[in-house]
Every structure is written in structure tokens, then in C-alpha cells.
Amino acid sequence: MIFSDVVRENRAEKRVPVEPEFWLLIFGDLFVFSAMFIAFIVARFESEATTQVFIAGSLSLNQAIGLSNTLILLTSSLFVAQGLAYFRANQFRLANRSLLCGIGCGLSFVGLKLFEYIEKYDQGLTVTTSDFFGYYFTFTGVHLLHVVIGISLLGFIVFKIKKQQEQALPSQGLFEGVACYWHMVDLLWLMLFSLFYLLN
Amino acid sequence: MDYAQPSILTTPTTLAKDYKFDSALFSVYSAAFMVFCTVLGVIILAPMLPPFGQASASAETIAAFYMEANLQKKIGLCIMMFGTPFLIPLFALVGEIMKRRMVMPVLGSVQFAAGLFGLLFTFMMTVCWGTAAFRPERSPEITQALHDLGWLFATWVASATLLQLGSICVAVFRDKSTAPIFPKWFGYFNMWMLVLGAPACVINIFHTGPFAYDGLLGFWVPYAGLFAWFVAMMLAVAGAVKRLNNAA
User: What is the pLDDT of residues A153-167, one digit of tens each?
Assistant: First the structure.
């Protein structure tokens, strides 16, 4: 399988993906999300009453949608990694097909998330209902913004590959950067999923 | 007096190579003076920053805050008001470097205009707090409204600064020359600041929690980012000016 070839190649080569400065952005973003997670934990365990509010909020979330969204994002990460492997092997048509699958997963994530927001809104649960829902809507909203930016970037790469002219091909660095960003979005969702849906 | 007459058949890129930035470091010193005035004015003398718990505080608490050490707050705001425009030279210099040396005229203008626009609301912030401190004995609700208005001008108008960050970021990454004018880390740093500043756009919804104007993502992260960005701007621009003047 082509994917494992790339992994082996990367191990042999021992280089930093994209360029070292790029990781300032990824770790910067992870740093901010870590601060947000710590704020969430602090607010949750402030007193017995706040813990009860957070547990009640967590139980009222739709676990099925949360779990499907987790699986969808993990699958899309796999598609993007596969697409990058095809791109490195100069198989642009297959790379684009993988990326489009990844974008499809991303779009279904956005769709499910919006459905979940509307469902909560219909139940009268909004951002000002309780501390838990304040955190829930804002944190997942910031994450959703990241997903939308990621989908646009993936779409931009698909568009560039589709043009197929030598000079219009995206550089490998750009592709790697977008892929790393997409994996980060995935990682952040795993954290959000465990904090909001599973911690009860 | 002799004029450097460029040849007729010349490209913007060759013209750009001859452009010099003499005495441009004064822009950086001017920005440092603005940061000094901000720290002295609204952090030390008038302790407006950080706003501990003010987004959810009662009108009486805010009024009492303005009543206590009133003259000191007024003097602090005077210093802030005087110092704010000294940031303009730095934005102008970055804009001119982008226009003339990197040959990105529209991006340069966007950078300067967005920077000015963001700065305009920094003036508005100082005016609102200055008005609140002007007659602190008035009914507390009005003082509270002015104080909140000042904070919304200060933080909520982050969108203009976000555009400025975006234009610098695009310029750094589109500079494909062999000796780039700005270092790569500066581009990534601006992109990171974009991420840090974005939550400031929703502070009008919350009174408590991380997104309120005194919360983690409404105050601490964007303002720590803002001051870090001032320092990074000054370092990157000073480095660029030195490189440009040595090369020419």
C-alpha cells in the first residue's frame, strides 16, 4: 500500500514536514486550545453545584452524533493522508479523489454539527442557558470555524491540482501544511469530544 | 541637485531594488514609544487593563471604580490619548516596504488602511473611558454603559486588525525572492495572531466565561497576543530595514 511507503520514507529521511517555522502556528493554536480546555476543567470542578450543571449538560448532548462526528473526522484524516501519499507519487487524479472524499467527510461533519445546534436550539438550550452550554457552543463553534477553514484549504488544493498545469500545481509544502492543519483539527475534536460528551 | 532618472524600459521590480529607507528605524522607535505610553497610561496609572470581573459587574461597582483615584485615571488616559498615534509610522513603513520593495501595492494599502482603522477605535476606547471618568458622580448606569462601550471599541473591533494581520501574512508568503524581506516566522506569527484574535469578535454576547471581555479568550489571549505582536513587528521590521539598507 502506497501510504505505508510514505511513512517509511519519512522515517528514513527524518525531516520536519513543511518547514520548522510552520510548527509555530500549529503549536500556537494547540496552546490556545489547551488554555481553553484548562478553563473548562477549572469551571467544571469549581464547586459541587457547577459539577452537577456540567454533568447534566453533558448527559443532554446527543452522544450518537458526537461519536459519528469523531469517526467522520478520523476517516477524513485518513483520506487526506492518503491523498498526500498519492500526490507525492505524482498520481494526481487519485490524490484529488482522496481529497474530495476528505472534503465530503468534512462537509458531513459540518452538517451534523449544525443539525445538533438546531436540535439544541429547539430544546431551548442556547449559549446563555448555563455555563456548560456557554462553553459547549463557543468551543465547538471555534472548532467548527477551524473545520470550515480546513475544508476551504483542501478545496483550494483540489482546484490547483485540477488545473494540472506544471506551474499551477500546489507545492508539496502547501499540501503538507494543509494536511497537518487538518490532522490538528481532528486532534482538537478528539479532545472536545472527550471533554463535552464523555466526561459525565 | 542630481536626479536619479530611471530608464524608460524598466519594470517595477528593478525600480523597487533602488528604493532606500533612510532613517526608517525612527518608525520602530515611535512604535516603542506608543507601547510605552499604553503600558504607563492604561495599565499602570489608570488600571483599565486587566478588567477583572467587569463584564458582569454591577453599575455601582463600575461607578465606584471610576470615583476612586479619579484624577490618576484621567492622567493615565491623557497619556494613552497622546501616545496612540505614534503607532502610525510603523504601519506606514510596513505598508511602504510591501508596496515598494515587495511590489504588492494593494496589499500594502490594505495593511495600512486596516491598521489605521483599528487604531481609530483605540482612540474611541480612550474617549469612552475618558468620558466615563469625566463626571463619575453621574448616575451609575451611564458610567457603566460608557465603560462597556470603551471595551467593545477596544476588543470587538479586532476584525480590522485581523485583516491587517492577514495582509501581512499573505505578503510574507508570496515573497518568493531569493532573499526574502521578512523572515518566514513572521508570516506564521501573524497567522497565529489571527487565530488568537478571532474570538474577540464575539465578546458582545457574553457577560461571563472565557469569551466575555474580561475572560480568557476575550481579554488575556488577544491582549497578550497584541503586545507580543507589537514586539514581533518591531523586531521583524527593524531587521528588514537593516537588511534593505545594507543591500542597497
Answer: 999 999 888 887 666
